[in-house]
Amino acid sequence: MKRKKISKMTAEDKAEFLAATKASFVKDHGIPWEEIEPKILAEIDASFDDEKFVKMDPDARIDAAYCRKEFGDKKPDLVDYILWSAKFVTKSEYAEW
To answer: Can you tell me whether residue 94 is helix, strand or coil?
Structure first.
């Protein structure tokens, strides 16, 4: 298992982390990644689309506001969003994969 500070992760680290995350969903949760990825991408899109943002569930909108605060106007890619989500939930600056 690897452990690294998120801000120090290289593109290679992020690719490995994403691959491990995909495998984890299948192995640990029995959910095919093909079902999860579109939902995460839709969440990212809604968070950064003003029209979709105001229509979000209030709890989801709070999380989306924190995401907007973190990334500003630049919509994160999939792996950066997953890393941010993990950091947001765990309050840890480190990723493990």
So the answer is: strand
What is the spatial distance between Cα 27 and Cα 48, in angstroms, rounded to a whole number? 31
pLDDT digits (tens, 9 = 90+) for 58-72: 999 999 999 999 999
57: DSSP letter: -
Token code pair at residue 23:
């495998």
- Looking at residue 40, its amino acid is I
Average pLDDT along the chain: 96
pLDDT digit string, tens, across residues 5-61: 999 999 999 999 999 999 999 999 999 999 999 999 999 999 999 999 999 999 999
User: Tokens 């950064």, residue?
Assistant: 48
Contacts of 3 (CB under 8 A, 6+ apart): 94, 95, 96
8 Å CB contact between 61 and 53: yes
For residue 35 the two structure tokens come to: 């079902």
